[in-house]
Amino acid sequence: MSSEISKNGSGKCPVMHGGMTKTNQSPTSEWWPKNLNLDILHQHDSKTNPMDVKFDYKSEVKKLDFNGIKKDLINLMTDSQEWWPADLGHYGGLFIRMAWHSAGTYRIADGRGGSGTGNHRFAPLNSWPDNTNLDKARRLLWPIKKKYGNKISWADLMILAGNMAYESMGLKMYGFSFGREDIWHPEKDVYWGSEKEWLENKRYDNNEDRTSLHNPLAAVVMGLIYVNPEGVGGKSDPLRTAHDVRETFGRMAMNDEETCALTVGGHSVGRAHGNGDASLLGPEPEAADIHEQGFGWNKKGGGGLGVNQVTSGIEGAWTTHPNKWDHSYLNLLLNYDWELKKSPAGANQWEPINMKEEDKPVDLADPSIKRNPIMTDADMAMKMDPSYKKIAEKFHKDPKYLEETFAKAWFKLTHRDLGPRKYYIGPDAPKEDLIWQDPVSDGKDFDVEKAKKLIEGTGLTSSEMISTAWDSARTYRRSDHRGGANGARIRLEPQKNWEGNEPARLNKVLGKLESVASETGASVADIIVLAGNVGLEQAIKKGGFNIKVPFSAGRGDATQEQTDVESFKVLEPIHDAFRNWVKEEYLVDPEELMLDRASLMDLSAKEMTILIGGMRVLNTNHGNSNHGVLTDNVGALTNDFFVNLTDMKFKWNLVDKNLYEIVDRKSNKAKFTATRVDLVFGSNSILRSYAEVYAQDDNKEKFVKDFVEVWNKVMNADRQELKKVH
After folding, report:
1. CB 200 within 8 A of CB 222
2. For 482-528, what is each residue's pLDDT tens digit?
3. Are 411 and 175 in contact (CB under 8 A)?
4. How far is residue 170 from each of residues 164, 166, 223, 421, 448, measured CA to CA in Å?
5. Is 101 a catalytic residue?
6. Beta bridge partners of 557
7. How many whole angstroms separate alpha carbon 547 and alpha carbon 216?
8. Alpha helices by DSSP H, 543-658
9. Annotated catalytic residue, options 101, 214, 243, 267
10. Sign of CA dihedral 616, 620, 622, 627
C-alpha cells in the first residue's frame, strides 16, 4: 500500500444516501420526504451569474498582467494589516492554508470538491471548523481581486496566493495554471456527510476499520478537511492516525510519498494557533450577525488577534523559522524525542524533550523569548509509521528531492480538478505530461464520409454502435473533467473489462471499428463516436425522419502507458439508468443513482428525460433487457416511450423490488416491463411534465431533434475547445 493509491473506500455505492430525496431548502421535503429532489440537476443556473452572457473567463484571464499580479501578491505577504496582523510579519502560512483547504476537499470517488470553482467562499466550506479564520485570508486578497477584476477569478486567486506564499518564503514551485471559473452560489450537489453537528462522526461502518469510511467521503468527520490533528476521535495515537492519513490522502489519489511530502512541505512554514479560550469565539461566518459583514469566529468583546488567535486550538510553530522555507521540520521531527502535552486552548499537541535553544522558534509577541515547536498526531505519524518514516528519512537525507517531490505533489493537489494539460493557461503552466492528467495523443484528420460507409459495412447493429459510443462517453464527469470518449480508453485496462461495458459485446464491436480506424487513418476514439452517430442516423430514418447527427473529429487515442489503471478504477460505473442497469442492490434507490450520474454528466432534468426516453426505444439496455422498452417499433428513434408511459389505457403493477409490469386495463395482460428509473418519469411531477411534452403528437420531430442535440453534448462533453460561451 505504501506506493499505491488507496482503493475507493469500502466498496459501497459512491452516492449520498437519501441526499436526493431530502433537502433543507424546501418545505416539500418535510411534507413529502420521499419525493425525488431534482435540484442536483439545476446547480449554477445562469440566472445566478452576475457576468454578461458573452463573458468567457478562460479568454478573459489570458489578458491578465501575470507578472503584475504575482508582484502584488509577493508584496501583500509582508504588508501586515492592523485588523489582522501577520505572524512574524508574514502572511505566507495563512495563504498556504487557505489554498490547501480550498483544494483539499477534492476526492477521486466522484471528482467533487477541490479548488476549481471558488466554492470556498460559500457555505458550508466557508464555515467549517477546519477553515476557521480563512475568511480573513480571502478578505486580505480583496484589494488584489478588486484591482484585477474580471481577469482573475477567486478560484484562481486563492490558489495563486498559496503558490506566491511559497515563492516569497524561498521555495521554487513546479508551476501554475489559470482557468478556474467561479461559481456564484453554494454547491448543493456535493455530499459532505450526513452528520448534523460539526465534528460528529457517523461515516464509518466500523470505527476500528478506517477503510470503512463511507464513499464518496474523504475527511474523517464533518467539518474537517482531512484528519483530526489531535488523533483519531481526539485521542492521540500516531500509528492509528497514520491509517487515517493514508486513507484520506489516498482518496485524493495521493500515494505515501506524495502524502509524506505534502505533510512535510505544508508544515515547513506557518504555525498553528491555540493561545486562548476557544469558547470565547463567536459564531462562524454563516451564523454571524449582520454587522460582522461576512466575518466569523470573532472573539466576544473584541481582541483575539495575532498572538491570541484560536484556530485549530493547537499552539505553536512546526519549525525554527516558520516565516521562511528551510529544512528544519525534518531535523526537529526526526532528531528529537517528543512528548504529548496540552496547548493553552486545551488541545493535544506534541512537544520536544530537551530541545536546544537555537532550534526553537521565537515567541510571536516577544522575539527575545524562545518557545517549543509543536507537532500534531499527523506529523508524528511521519516519524512512527514504518512506511512514512522511511520516506521522511529519504527526504531528510536529500532535501532537493523533497523540494521537487513536494512541489509536484502541491501542483497535483491544486490542479487535479482542472482537467487535461492542453487546457492550462498562463506562462507558468508546465509542459510536462503527468499521468494523473490523463494525457491523450492528438487526433488525426480523416475522410469522415468514407469512414461512415465502412462502418455501415461492418454488419454491426445500430444498438451495438450506439451502446458502445455511449459507454465510451458516459464516464465523463464535469466535477474534475475526467473520463469521456476522447482517448478511447474503453479499449484499455481497466475499462475494457468493466461489467457495465459488456466485455463480450464490446470486444466484438471494437474489433470491427479498429479495422475502420486503421483503414481510414482515424483515431479509434473518433470512429467509436462516429459509429454511434451512424447507428443513431439509422434509427432516426427508421422512425420516419431524416435528421443528420453532427460530428466533430479531433479525438486522439490514449495508450495503456498513458493510463493510470488504479486511478481509473474509480470511474467504473456501478449503475447506468440510461441503459437500465444496476450492478447490484444498493441502499440508494436507482432513480437517485440516476440523478447523481446525470449531474456528473452535466445534464439538466430535461436532457436526462430526453436521453432516457430515446435510449429505451433504441434498444440499448444492458444485457439486451426489455425493461422500459415501451415500443413496438424497437430500434427506431421515436417518442413511444413517453406516449406509452403516459397512456391511461395501461396500469402499473409491482412485480419485484425494481420490476414492474405495464398492464393493458382491458385485457389485463402485461404489455411491457419497466424499472423504477422508467416509472419515475411518470410519477415525479416535474419529470412527468417533461414526459408529457415529448408524448404530444406535435412534438415527435422535436423529440428527435432534441435527442440529437443532447447526444452530441454527451459525445463531446470532454472537449472544452468545442464548448460555446454560455
Report:
1. yes
2. 999 999 999 999 999 999 999 999 999 999 999 999 999 999 999 99
3. yes
4. 10, 6, 32, 27, 54
5. yes
6. 487
7. 41
8. 565-568, 590-600, 605-617, 640-645
9. 101
10. positive
